[in-house]
Every structure is written in C-alpha cells, then in structure tokens.
Amino acid sequence: MVEICCGGYYDAKQAFLGGADRIELNSGLFLGGLTPSIASLELIKEEFDLNTICMIRPRGAGFYYNDEDKKVMFRDTKALLKANADGIAFGFLHEDKNIDIESTKKMIDIVKSFDCKKEVVFHRAFDCVSNPYDSIETLIDLGIDRLLTSGLKEKAFDGIDLIKELNEKYGDKIEILAGSGINYKNAKEIITKTGINQIHSSCKDFIQDNTTSGKNVSYAYLNNENKYDVVSFNLVKSLVEMVK
After folding, report:
1. Residue 156 per-residue DSSP state
2. What is the pLDDT of residues 119-157, one digit of tens each?
3. Which of 136, 80, 139 is nearest to 110 (CA)?
4. How far apart are CA 4 and CA 205, in angstroms?
5. For the segment 29-46, what is each residue's pLDDT rounded down to a tens digit?
6. Whole domain around residue 155: which residue ranges?
7. DSSP state at residue 94
8. Among candidates 24, 44, 34, 144, which has minimal Cα distance to 84?
9. 55 pairs with which residues across the strands?
C-alpha cells in the first residue's frame, strides 16, 4: 500500500496518475499538514478512484489543543465526512505528551457514527509521545485503525528498529504505516527490515512562481526561493514501481 501525502487537488491528481493506492489530503504541507478544503476533497472524489484520508489539524506546531481548537476540529471532521472522506487522520496529546484519551475517543465516535468502515488514523503526533508502548496499547484499546509513525525519529529510516518492533508486537491489532523521508531509494529496504506493508511518502517536487516576491517584499517559505512544493507524478510512479 502506497499512500501519498497531498496538499490539494493538483497533488492528488499526480498521486493518482502515478499509481498511488491512497492519499492523505492536507493543506499547508510546509507546516506539517493542516485541514484541507472541502472543494479539494469533493473534486478528488468526483474525478479519481482514490481512498482519501483527510487530515484534521487546525494549526502548526504541536498537538496539545485548547477547547477552541477542538471545537473546530470536530466540526471540520463532520464536514469532511459528509463530503465523502474515507477516513480521518488526527492526533491529540496532553501537555505531558501522553495520549489525550477523551478527545481521541470523541473523534473515533464521530467518525464511526458516519460509517463503521470509515477509518481513524492516529498520525505522527505519536512520534512525540513519552512511551510508545503504552501509547500504542492505548490507541489499540480505543479502536484506532492505523498508526502513522517514523519510529519516534525524524525520518522513518532512522526509526526502523522501533517500527519493526511495533509491527511485530502489535501489527495484528493495528495497522502500522511508516512515514517521513520515505522515497523510491529507501522504501524497499524499510519494508524489508520492518515487515510492514504500508508506506507514506510526500514524493515532493517544486514549481517556480516568480510572483512570490517583489522588489521590496517576499512571501517565500522555502529558503527565500520563489517556489512552492507539489507532489511529483514521476516520483510517485518510481516509488510505486519499486515496491509493487
């Protein structure tokens, strides 16, 4: 299973044409991924046969949310599910970096109330937890379908040992999806060493936009370059061909 992290409709099209099985739909990927627009989801579901998991994340930085954040997150979840999202990716932590059980349970209940086949995915907020073993057992007990993780490391390749251990201990109770820094060059080795059968990749490329800066102003977010990030069809295709 190849899942591509997409920032919108254009990215989803490249992922589909490249042969991806599933996408995680976001906006603001340069912030780590934020809640996507309804329009982008609607267009994707109308035009492509793609399993689409929607990110629910109202802001950048961490995963300790206030009541106002949560109010928006739960409403966004309902709106995206009504627009035919196949599942929801999210992550709630307490300030001590343990799983926020109450909020996680509420999210699961909302998603499953729409359709028991809708998927609930706990994203890489997991990679900030204090104890990965206690945390994954909590997620299993709550009924999370899938866990996206880099093995508590910056990149999944560096977290191979923990990903392998989690998959061996818990892979029959929760799906393990490895992500962060995975590409066509290292995907096969990560799959072989961990025993997982799902990978998550951004397959990132960049497009030039000279209107990003003027004579005295710049809206650049990529090292002051006039570019923005997109999914590359060629990189998706190369990744799919490498692991299939």
Report:
1. G
2. 999 999 999 999 999 999 999 999 999 999 999 999 999
3. 80
4. 13
5. 999 999 999 999 999 999
6. 2-243
7. -
8. 44
9. 89
